[in-house]
Design a protein that fits this description.
The protein is mainly β. Helix content is 13%, strand content 44%. The chain has five helices and 24 strands. It has a four-stranded antiparallel sheet, with no helix packed on it. The longest helix is centred in the first third of the chain and has 13 residues. It is globular and about 60 Å long.
Length: 369
C-alpha cells in the first residue's frame, strides 16, 4: 500500500509547475531526493512538453541585464530574473530549449554576439554554465542554434562559421562532453541569407529560413527575382543538413519575408508579403509514410506593420505576436491574435519597456550538471 501511495504522489508531482516543485524541495528530504532524480526530471519534462493546454508556455523577455518570464495564461503574471554575469555591451538570446537558455554577450556594435562568451542558464534554478572557448577561428558566425539531441540525451550548441578564404564549417558544443568539435558538411550558400541568425529548434533539429528578404536585410543586396526561399534543417543526432521545401502556390511568391516558429512540437512557417496585406501561417506535418507536407494554419491581417512576428502559440487558435509598428524605433508591443473571431488584444508588458527580444520558454527541472 505504501508503494502505491508513493507512486500516486510521484504522478501528481510530475504534473505540477516546475516553480512549485522548487518550493517543494524544502518539504522533506524524501521529496528533495525524488524531485532531483533524473527519471523524475525526465517524466516531468515530458508532461510539460505534451501538455495539450500549453499551460507551461511562457515568454522570456530580454531587457538586458534583466530578464522577465511572462505568463499569459490566466491570471497574467511576470517574474524578474537577474542574469548572474555582467556583460559590458548587453546580452542576447541565442536559443531556448527545455527550460535552458543559451545566452551570448552582445558585441560592441550592439548587433550579434561577440563569439567568445556563451552561457547556458536555467533561470528558475539560477544555475549557469560558461561554455569553454572554441579553438576554431571565428572569423564570421553566420548561424547559431541551441537544442536537444533525443538519441544521445544531450544538449548541443551549433555555429555555422566562415573564414577569410570564403570557406564554411560547423562547430558544435555538446554539454555531456563539455567540448567542441568541427564538421564540414555545409549546404548551399543561400543558407547565409537568413531571416534571422538564431535557429528554431523542433523535435531534434534546428531550422533556419533563407530568403531574399534576408539577403537584402543583412547583406544589403538588391532583391533577386530568381531567388528561391528555402529552409535548412540541421539534425542534431546525425549532424547533417537537409533542405525543406517552402510551400508555394499562386498567392505565395519568393519575395516574401519568412520566419520560423515552433507550434506545439511542429515547425511553423510565417510568411509576410511586402505589400502589407496579411501574414500566412503554415505548419509542417508528416503522413503515415513519413512524407512531409505543409498545411495552412491561419491567415493574420496586417494591423501592426511589417515589424511583427509570431513568438508562441497560447492555444491552437491563439498566437502571441511581437510588434514594433511601422518603425524599428517604436517601442515593442505584445499582441494576442485569436483566429476564431479574428480579433487582436494588446497584452500588458508589466512595466518592461524597450526590451531587445523575446523567446518562447517553459520552466523545467532540467539541470546543467
Amino acid at each position: 500500500m505504501s508503494n502505491l501511495f508513493d507512486e500516486i504522489i510521484e504522478e501528481i508531482l510530475t504534473r505540477l509547475p516546475a516553480k512549485s516543485l522548487v518550493r517543494f524541495n524544502l518539504v522533506c528530504k524524501k521529496w528533495l531526493s525524488l524531485i532531483s532524480d533524473p527519471n523524475f526530471v525526465r517524466k516531468h519534462l515530458d508532461n510539460v512538453l505534451l501538455d495539450p493546454s500549453n499551460n507551461h508556455c511562457k515568454l522570456i523577455v530580454n531587457s538586458s541585464p534583466k530578464f522577465y518570464s511572462i505568463d499569459y495564461q490566466e491570471p497574467l503574471s511576470s517574474t524578474k530574473h537577474n542574469f548572474p554575469l555582467k556583460s559590458p555591451h548587453g546580452l542576447c538570446i541565442l536559443g531556448a530549449c527545455n527550460g535552458l537558455l543559451c545566452i551570448g554577450f552582445t558585441n560592441m556594435g550592439g548587433c550579434g554576439h561577440d563569439n567568445s562568451n556563451i552561457i547556458l542558464w536555467n533561470p528558475l534554478f539560477k544555475h549557469y554554465k560558461i561554455l569553454p572557448q572554441c579553438n576554431s577561428a571565428l572569423t564570421s558566425v553566420r548561424l547559431v542554434g541551441f537544442g536537444y539531441d533525443y538519441y544521445l540525451d544531450d544538449y548541443k550548441f551549433a555555429r555555422v562559421i566562415s573564414n577569410s578564404m570564403g570557406g564554411h564549417k560547423v562547430v558544435i558544443y555538446t554539454l555531456k562532453t563539455n567540448s567542441w568539435k568541427t564538421i564540414r558538411s555545409v549546404p548551399s550558400s543561400k543558407l547565409y541569407f537568413p531571416s534571422r541568425n538564431e535557429g528554431t529548434f523542433v523535435n531534434g533539429s534546428l531550422y533556419w529560413a533563407s530568403s531574399d528578404y534576408g539577403a537584402h536585410h543583412y547583406f544589403h543586396q538588391n532583391y533577386d527575382p530568381e531567388f528561391e526561399n528555402l529552409i535548412i534543417r540541421f539534425d542534431l543526432t546525425d549532424e547533417k543538413f537537409r533542405v525543406v521545401e517552402v510551400p508555394l502556390n499562386d498567392d505565395i511568391k519568393p519575395k516574401w519575408r519568412i520566419d520560423l516558429v515552433e507550434v506545439k512540437g511542429r515547425l511553423g512557417l510565417f510568411q509576410m508579403k511586402y505589400e502589407f496585406r496579411d501574414f500566412q501561417m503554415w505548419i509542417l506535418k508528416e503522413d503515415e509514410k513519413k512524407n512531409v507536407y505543409w498545411t495552412k494554419l491561419m491567415r493574420i491581417p496586417q494591423k501592426y506593420g511589417m515589424y511583427s512576428w509570431p513568438v508562441c502559440f497560447v492555444k491552437s487558435d491563439e498566437v502571441v505576436l511581437s510588434t514594433s509598428g511601422m518603425s524599428r524605433n517604436e517601442d515593442k508591443k505584445l499582441v494576442l491574435y485569436n483566429s476564431k473571431d479574428s480579433r487582436f488584444r494588446k497584452l500588458p508588458n508589466f512595466g518592461v519597456s524597450n526590451w531587445l527580444e523575446e523567446k518562447m520558454y517553459v520552466e523545467t527541472l532540467v539541470s546543467l550538471n
